Amino acid sequence: MVRRPWLLIKFFSSVLWQIVIANIHVARLILMSSDKLRPGFVEIPLDLTSPLAISILANTISLTPGTVTCDLSKDQKKLLIHALHIDDAQATIDEIKQLFEKPLKEIFN
C-alpha cells in the first residue's frame, strides 16, 4: 500500500531525470570507449519488503539505460542486476539503493 502518494510523484519525476542522465552516459560510453566497457552482474541486497515496491524497483532499474534486472532471489531479499559498465560494484549498489530503493522505502513503509 502506498503510504505517501505525493512522494510517488516525486519519485517518478526523479526516475525520468535519471533516465535522461543514463541515456547520455550510455551514449558516451558506447561512442567513446566501447572497447573499454566492463559489463557485469551485481546483487543488490533489498531493504524493501512490499512485493509492489520490489516490482517497481526492478522495473525502474530495467527502464534505466545501461542496467537490467535479471532475477529476484527466492527469499525476495536480493535482485540480480546486469550493468553495461561497472567500475566499482559497491558504488553501483550504493547508487541504486540511494536513487531508487530509499525513496521507495519512504513511499511504501
Plain-language structure description:
It is a single chain. The chain is 57% helix and 17% strand. Strand 2 and strand 3 form a beta hairpin. The longest helix has 29 residues, at 5-33. It has 3 helices and 3 strands, in the order H-E-H-E-E-H. The protein is of the alpha+beta class and 109 residues long.
In short:
The chain is built from 3 helices and 3 strands, in the order αβαββα. The protein has 109 residues and is an alpha+beta fold. α1 runs antiparallel to α3 (89-108) and α2 crosses α3.
Number of helices: 3
Q: Helix amount, in percent?
A: 55-70%
Distance between the termini: 8 Å
Largest sheet: 3 strands, antiparallel
Category from helices, strands and their pairing? alpha+beta
Strand content: 15-25%
Taking all Cα atoms into account, the compactness measure Rg is 14 Å
Strand order of the largest sheet: 1-3-2
Low-confidence stretches: none
Number of strand elements: 3
Total of domains: 1
Mean pLDDT across the residues is 93
The helix/strand order is HEHEEH
Please tell me what the overall shape is.
Answer: globular
Topology, element by element:
Layout: H1 5-33, E1 40-45, H2 51-63, E2 67-72, E3 78-83, H3 89-108
Antiparallel strand pairs: 1-3, 2-3
Helix pairs in contact: 1-3, 2-3
